[in-house]
Amino acid sequence: MRTVRDPTCGPITTGAHRCHPHATPSRTSSTTTHRLLALALFAEANREGDVYATLNNRLNPRTGDALRACKQGAHGDWTGDARNLVDELERIVGLLARQR
Question: What is the pTM of this model?
């Protein structure tokens, strides 16, 4: 994989990410996980407050918990069942992939 700069959505890694069709450079200047997920889910980065509820409603309540655990783990604060975490995160990836 290699990172390239797409004029519509900024730096992307080829083979791993595709730009959301409604993305603009100002929207993709978001760098937090929540803002990027809001952009992917709603095409609006400022809807980051809706991310957990949407994941829980569209998938299942464990999915929001998995996202929270993933974010905590990035800071070294998570312990738990890694297989379950991966399963739930795969559900999020599947949801995002279906939105294209």
Answer: 0.64
